[in-house]
Amino acid sequence: MDSSNSPSTKPLYRGTQIVWYLLGLLEILLAFRLVLKLFAANSTAVFTSFIYGITYVFTAPFLSVFSITKVSGNIFEWTTLLAMFVYWIIAIGIVKLFLIGKTVSIPEAADKLNSQEK
């Protein structure tokens, strides 16, 4: 059986697309947060407040990991970089889990197992 014609291929592909899309959206929001903090954006501005509010939940688990680097009011938030990295790793793990469900032929599985032995 050709694994590319399996009924599970399209849903798995869509699932991985959704994971990468959500990660991209989160990474963009976190990048905005990083830049706004770095350039000491006015935290009372609507856009800045929105970005800080929406990204806080994603950075909160990491806030006490590193100390904040502050120079003349500008803040380099290492925790935001850590959050970006951790969420990227999580997305890779989720995509790998999706790919476990991919249908493979017996010869393809044998080839993969043989390559893992080396």
Count of domain modules: 1
- Straight-line N-to-C gap: 26 Å
How do the SSEs run, as a string of H and E?
HHEEHH
Total strand count, please? Answer: 2
Residue-averaged pLDDT: 87
Placed side by side, the strands forming the largest sheet appear as 1-2
* Low-pLDDT windows of residues: none
Strand content: 5-15%
> What's the shape?
elongated
Describe the structure.
There is one protein chain. The chain has one domain. The chain is 67% helix and 5% strand. It has four helices and two strands. Strands 1-2 form a two-stranded antiparallel sheet. A hairpin with a 2-residue loop joins strand 1 (69-71) and strand 2 (74-76).
Summarize the structure.
By secondary structure, the chain is mainly alpha-helical. It has helices spanning 9-38, 46-59, 78-100, 106-117; strands at 69-71, 74-76.
Topology:
Layout: H1 9-38, H2 46-59, E1 69-71, E2 74-76, H3 78-100, H4 106-117
Antiparallel strand pairs: 1-2
Helix pairs in contact: 1-2, 1-3
